[in-house]
Amino acid sequence: MPEFMVVLRGADPERKVSPSGEIEGLMEKYYNWVDRLKKERRYIGGAPFRGGSKLLSGHRDWVVIADTPYAKAKEALTGYFIIAADSIPQAVEIAKSCPALTHGETVEVLELNN
Hints:
The chain is α+β, with helices and mostly antiparallel strands. The protein has one domain: 2-Layer Sandwich (Alpha-Beta Plaits). Helix content is 24%, strand content 34%. It has a four-stranded antiparallel sheet with strand order 2-5-1-6, with helices on one face. The longest helix has 19 residues.
């Protein structure tokens, strides 16, 4: 079955989230979503990104390594999931139920070349 990467891009970092109730409720939504995907045998893996990253660029004889403005980016990458689906339209349907979409994040679906 084809595999797809579901990439999460964070909402506006200025948005305040309640440390206790709101975060716990959101995490429960993610756990439930992943549990559902596991039961459907669609979940392959995933993880949140910790923050901080390095951007490498180069051309033939040189490479430039720069810190990226991860924490200040309006839509920083926040995590990813790898899922199994029959097609990109099916992967999009699965991604539409991702909890990231309930609090202002965006989700991108990419087909992996396996």
